Amino acid sequence: MSTPRNLLITGGAGFIGSHVVRRFVTKYPKYRIIILDALTYAGNLENLRDIENAPNYTFVKADICDADAVAKVFTDFAIDGVIHLAAESHVDRSITDPLSFVRTNVFGTVTLLNVAKEAWKGRFEGKRFYHVSTDEVYGSLHDDSLFVETTPYDPQSPYSASKAASDHFVRAYGNTYKLPFVVSNCSNNYGSHHFPEKLIPLMINNIRNNKPLPVYGKGENVRDWLWVEDHASAIDTIFHTGVNGETYNIGGHNEWKNIDLVHLLCGIMDRKLGRAEGESAKLITYVTDRAGHDLRYAIDASKIERELGWRPSITFEVGLERTVDWYLANTEWLDHVTSGAYRSYYDAQYGR
Ligand code: NAD
Ligand code: DAU
Questions:
Q1: CA angle centred on 159, ends 156 and 164, rounded to 5°
Q2: In this predicted model, what pLDDT tens digit does every residue of 227-260 receive, in sequence order?
Q3: Whether residue 213 has its Cβ less than 6 Å from ligand 1
């Protein structure tokens, strides 16, 4: 059982990070939660607005690649636990700019590991470094098998290669320096505060604005979707009760072909926007496939269920309705994050 007093959460202003921060700040008032985030295009303090005045919440703007800044946070706040989510996270961006993924995901993670090792030197008792990773490190499935914790790594994109490298470094620090760590590898998340460069929020935003819905290739790629708050609850469970040195796969037992998912979303949006049935689906446009597009990801989450008693709490139907409701109630958030730099990204990715 890990019970930190001063918990550092990196990447806490991002999509998943903000849900993890909200959960920990409200559920554990006795922990001091320090959020370290560089506030890149994906980081947004609006994601944390509702909890920013909580007495146990502290935000530090810093880059995980800046060893001095990270070391200062460890000293100033006597950090005794880390949940590391900061990363470059979008596969398409990793195809156009792989080096920024090496910088943050590999160099940044090793910088953080090094600072933790030095700060905790000889006093590893009660400390924990939790590295949040992805199922993409296992590669692409071409049969009906599932990823288990022992599936050999076979990353196929610059993003997944950088995450795989970071996972290897975490385990190497555990083996070499005895740094106490846990790793989890999760499937695709969806939910509120998801940056609209990713499939689900991009489609919701485009449907609402009557813009084309860009489906890569034939739309036959399969992803396993998990509600982001269920990922946050899994992280909570693993952080507190996971065994040092172990890896836990997290997933939703919820596989969807992209094209079926887009049709499902169109149907929900037609209903919510009062459009005729089938209206939004007319916006579906097949576009050039993603380079090296992984065919299928699917997680076997039986280890975390069996050993730690975690399970997803809601069905996809309920989660998707909640998600669409959130975006329709927070169009200001969507308009804000899609102004400025998002527009040039969108034009470069999808053309005008
Ligand atoms: P995100 O892109 O929404 O957020 C990333 C956060 O990290 C942002 O707040 C950003 O400002 C911050 N950040 C980026 N570079 C930084 C740096 N150099 N220093 C400090 N902060 C920096 O990402 P997300 O989707 O919330 O993913 C969070 C983590 O979970 C990532 O490690 C990702 O690999 C992993 N993951 C994501 C998914 C998913 O479906 N989104 C699934 C499994 C695992
Ligand atoms: O599996 C976990 C991973 O899931 C995380 O590690 C990543 O950080 C996260 O971004 C996500 O990666 P994907 O590449 O699977 O997610 P994305 O939302 O970008 O794409 C989902 C699927 O939809 C994928 O098959 C590509 C397709 N797609 C995506 C976009 C943005 C489209 O068809 N059109 C699009 O415009």
A1: 75
A2: 999 999 999 999 999 999 999 999 999 999 999 9
A3: no
